[in-house]
Each structure stands twice: as structure tokens, then as C-alpha cells.
Design a protein that fits this description.
The protein is an alpha/beta fold and about 325 residues long. It contains 14 helices and five strands.
């Protein structure tokens, strides 16, 4: 419901997050970005910036909710497509959202946001129709080398993703190869972050920091969320229990009752629910004069307090059960 409120009502303009506030939990930060992009795609973003926001940030310091590594492409404006205001995002942008080698100002900047500004979420965003990805994939397909200049250095950082995409989809159209290369390039940047930054790697290993990827569609403004790196546990060298819980698909399991009495009660509840669903000779909830005040229930039921879920009716149970 909170997400729906954010989507319908827009970003609260009277809330200014500064360094005097507690750090933003990664799940809350990610939720803010998801609903912010939804507001943007529905035409509800871009609230008016008030002067007190700038004064508060200048006087009390910044507390960004997320570090975002994005492409420098002018068609992919990070703060705008997340519908965020000054102080919300710590933005890093390079052509092709690439990280050169395992050192330099980009990783150092991300580490500053995490270690000093207490940011708990990193998002690596690529985008559709990326010129750098397209040039690299075409060069790989034509078996050509990268340009011998600084632009060539940028493209060389995308080469591994381009080669894997062309190899995996060797007979596919260029459009599909570009789509896969864009995702693989995002994962490559995420891999480099974890591999070459002790601060990022340790933060993920302790499950205090979250690192996810996303692809921005420059045609409709939407985001395709990729989630964490598929080999995140292997890269950080640690078992991530919360990560496994988030990513594992839900599967229903039938657990046998631990005792004959428990089995009898479960069978009775299932039979009652069947009567409720089929509306077949419901016992109904009627007070029985034979019930005494000291009757002991045989079942503990934990569920929602929503009035639309009347559990006594759902299980066709009687008072005291």
C-alpha cells in the first residue's frame, strides 16, 4: 500500500533527507527508486524543487539513498527517470556505464558514498540503444579491433560482454545480441565493483549493502530490473542467506503432521475449508450452550487481521476450536 501511495501521490516534497538522518535501509532505497521510475513513466514525476531543500542540504550535508552508476548518454538522465531530487542519489556516469580496470576515481567515489555517507544501495544501470555497446558488438561481429584512442579504451571494457553475447546468440539478429550484451555489460561492471573494492565486497558479504542492476528503456522510460549478479556469492566468497531467501523461487511443500492428534485437527480444518468453498452443509458458527468458559482451543491460527478473511468461517469452525 505504501508503494501505491508513492505512485499515486508522487514524491513527498516536504521531506528532505540530510546527513542528520539515519542511513536508508537498502530495501527502502530500492523501493523509492522503483516507484519513482513508475511515477516518471506515468507522467507524474518532476515535482517543483523548493529552496528550503537546497538550504537544508547545504546546511546539514547529504545522505543519498543510493549510488547509481549509469551511462553518460544524454538520453538516460538518472535523477530524472528515478524522479529523485537533489540529495537523493550519488550518481556516477561513464560512457557505456563501464569501469576501467580495478582502480580509479569511479570506484573511489562509490566507496566514499558507502563508507562516509552510509549509502546502502548500489544500482548499475545500462540502457537500450546504447551507442558504446552497439559499436563494440558490431566490431566483434566484424572481427575488428577497438579504436586506438581513449574511446577505444571505453569500448574495450565492453568487449567481454559483446563477445559473450555474439557467441551465445551467434545466429540471432543484431537487436537480440545488443539486448543480451547490454545486460552482460551491466553484470560485468557489478563484477568489477565486487572484485576490486574491499568496501563493496565486505558490505555485500555482511548483507548490509545491496548491489543490483537495471536496464533503462529510452523509448518508454521504464526500467527492467535485473536483480543482483547471478554469481554474487561466488564473487564475494561468502554465503548470503538473505540474498538466497530473496532470490529463491517460492515452492509449496507438504509437511506431515507430527502426531495423530495434529493430523486429525488438520484434516478437520481442511474438511471445513472444503465445505466453506463448496458451500456444502456448513455447520455455521452458533454458540453451543454446552461450551464452558474454561474450554481449551485445539488450534493456534496465525493470520491476517483483515476483516475480509474470517478464519472461523473459512475453516467452518465453531467457538472453542
Amino acid at each position: 500500500r505504501a508503494q501505491q501511495d508513492l505512485l499515486e501521490e508522487g514524491r513527498p516534497l516536504d521531506v528532505v533527507r540530510t546527513a542528520s538522518d539515519p542511513p536508508v535501509p537498502p530495501q527502502e532505497a530500492l523501493c523509492s527508486l522503483v516507484v519513482g521510475n513508475r511515477r516518471y513513466t506515468k507522467g507524474g514525476g518532476g515535482g517543483q524543487l523548493e529552496s528550503y531543500v537546497l538550504k537544508a542540504l547545504a546546511g546539514k550535508g547529504q545522505l543519498p539513498a543510493a549510488v547509481v552508476l549509469g551511462c553518460a548518454d544524454s538520453r538516460a538522465p538518472v535523477e530524472i527517470y528515478f524522479d529523485m531530487q537533489p540529495g537523493d542519489l550519488f550518481v556516477l556516469r561513464t560512457a557505456g556505464n563501464t569501469i576501467e580496470g580495478g582502480f580509479g576515481g569511479l570506484l573511489g567515489s562509490a566507496e566514499y558514498a558507502i563508507a562516509v555517507l552510509k549509502t546502502k544501495l548500489i544500482v548499475v544501470t545500462g540502457h537500450t540503444l546504447c551507442g558504446a555497446v552497439t559499436a563494440t558488438v558490431k566490431a566483434v561481429k566484424a572481427n575488428e579491433g577497438m579504436p586506438p584512442d581513449n574511446m577505444g579504451v571505453v569500448l574495450d571494457n565492453i568487449r567481454a560482454a559483446a563477445e559473450m553475447s555474439v557467441k551465445t546468440l551467434s545466429g540471432a539478429p543484431l537487436e537480440q545480441q545488443l539486448k543480451l550484451a547490454t545486460k552482460l555489460n551491466i553484470f560485468e561492471a557489478m563484477h568489477k565493483m565486487m572484485k576490486h573494492s574491499t568496501i563493496i565486497r565486505d558490505g555485500i558479504a555482511s548483507e548490509e549493502l545491496m548491489l543490483v542492476g537495471a536496464v533503462y528503456n529510452i523509448e518508454d522510460g521504464s526500467l527492467d530490473w535485473l536483480g543482483p549478479h547471478p554469481e554474487q556469492e561466488k564473487i564475494v566468497g561468502s554465503t548470503l542467506h538473505v540474498h538466497r531467501w530473496r532470490e529463491a523461487p517460492y515452492s509449496r511443500k507438504s509437511m506431515p503432521a507430527s502426531s495423530p492428534v495434529a493430523r486429525f485437527i488438520i484434516d478437520r480444518l481442511q474438511a471445513g475449508n472444503k465445505r466453506f468453498v463448496e458451500q456444502d452443509e456448513l455447520h455455521g458458527v452458533h454458540l453451543n450452550p454446552s461450551f464452558s468458559h474454561d474450554v481449551e482451543p485445539d488450534t493456534i491460527l496465525v493470520g491476517s487481521s483483515n476483516l475480509r478473511v474470517p478464519y472461523e468461517d473459512v475453516f467452518d469452525s465453531r467457538p472453542g476450536q
